[in-house]
Specification:
By secondary structure, this protein is mainly alpha-helical. It is 75% helix and 0% strand. The chain is built from 16 helices and no strands. Helix 7 packs across helix 14 and helix 11 runs antiparallel to helix 14. The two termini are 27 Å apart. The N terminus is likely disordered.
């Protein structure tokens, strides 16, 4: 079908899912996140290099650290008028980064490549989110952020099981990365559908960079700050489960603790596909608060789980909670933001995800060292309940038009 009528219908939600532009964006998002999912076997690759195991953490975290710094610098300059250019630049950088791993043979060269890769991912991810925000209908924001989250989760589900097969047939990790560099080139033709063909509506103010004064005014909006703070607390708890779950499973004698994450991912995808249309029919503030409260109870239960059946059941429950909370939070921040600030604020929301995965282990490691796993997950429960308070403070008025 042609894009014009599809996107016209898309303004009310129907038809957008089959529009070429939306499908191209989702395909580009899949390829962008495949860039990260392929590093599931990165530690095995490091073991083959003259790198001390004590430095593995620095090399693993360098990509996220670079992204954490670069995204806030790029976001104010990413707007509807230059989305295509930034997508081209981000894609070219990502392809170059994947190819550069073949020449990284030691700690310092690998550190530079990881920082370069994080920069490329930040540019590509910021431009993609700006393009996505431009096509999402206001009344369907949580539903479509849920679909986007499913697409970005799929590479983490599909690619890791393929890596042993690819390793055996391509002859090593570096060649796998070169194959993914070639696949990333497919983003270039997809970008053709993403931006620039439709004329800007009269009075559109989303096609220019934000000024420093506008950014400061936006950051004084208490509604935006409360939602971002609640998102940070949500992602801190998520990160503490992700990073410390394996050790916790071993400490309570549960084999294959990783199945917990498989079940949680299945829960996240399942709830977004099955109930995504309900996210926008309900009060998003109440829905987010209910999901956070349920997660708080789940954290408390995880701290005292008596056996593997409840342990794995909690994996599914966490997936359902995260599967609701994350897209609803994005929908909330989309709804309270003025159109000119939507892409910027949604990118700040992504920044909260990265900040949570930075702060979560930073908070959790000393807690674990001093008081053990129960205190770690009690802390997660408290963070979740604090997020409920932030969201529940008062009813918001939508700002967008």
């Amino acid at each position: 079908m042609s894009d014009a009528p599809a996107l016209a219908m898309g303004s009310s939600g129907a038809g957008l899912l089959t529009s070429r532009k939306f499908l191209a964006l989702m395909a580009a998002a899949f390829l962008a996140y495949a860039n990260v999912a392929v590093f599931f076997g990165f530690v095995d690759h490091l073991r083959a290099l003259p790198v001390s195991p004590a430095d593995y953490g620095i090399l693993i975290g360098a990509m996220a650290a670079a992204s954490l710094v670069v995204r806030p610098l790029v976001s104010p300059f990413s707007h509807a008028g230059n989305t295509r250019l930034l997508l081209f630049i981000g894609t070219a950088l990502a392809v170059a980064a994947l190819a550069a791993y073949t020449i990284a043979a030691g700690f310092w060269s690998m550190l530079l490549v990881r920082l370069f890769h994080g920069t490329a991912f930040a540019v590509l991810g910021t431009a993609l989110m700006t393009a996505v925000v431009g096509v999402i209908p206001k009344a369907k924001s949580a539903q479509f952020f849920g679909y986007l989250a499913v697409v970005t989760l799929l590479p983490y589900t599909l690619i890791p099981p393929l890596l042993p097969f690819l390793d055996a047939h391509l002859g090593g990790f570096n060649r796998i990365l070169l194959m993914f560099a070639l696949l990333t080139l497919l983003v270039f033709p997809l970008v053709v559908f993403v931006s620039g063909r439709e004329p800007m509506p009269s009075g559109d103010d989303t096609a220019s960079a934000l000024t420093g004064r506008e950014i400061m005014a936006n950051l004084k909006d208490a509604r935006v700050l409360r939602i971002l703070a609640a998102m940070l607390l949500l992602y801190c708890g998520h990160a503490m489960v992700f990073f410390f779950l394996d050790g916790y499973g071993q400490s309570i004698r549960i084999a294959c603790a990783g199945v917990f994450l498989t079940l949680s991912t299945a829960g996240e995808i399942g709830i977004r596909v099955a109930a995504g249309t309900l996210f926008d029919r309900m009060d998003k503030r109440r829905l987010a608060a209910a999901a956070l409260a349920a997660l708080g109870l789940a954290y408390a239960a995880l701290a005292h789980v008596p056996g593997e059946w409840l342990f794995f059941a909690l994996g599914l429950i966490f997936g359902l909670g995260w599967g609701v909370a994350m897209p609803v939070f994005n929908g909330l921040i989309f709804d309270v933001s003025k159109p000119r600030f939507r892409a910027f604020n949604i990118n700040l929301g992504l920044q909260m995800f990265q900040a949570g995965f930075f702060l979560g282990p930073l908070i959790g490691a000393p807690l674990l060292d001093r008081w053990g796993y129960a205190s770690l997950y009690h802390c997660c429960a408290v963070l979740s309940l604090l997020a409920v308070v932030l969201i529940w403070t008062r009813k918001e008025k939508n700002n967008g038009s």
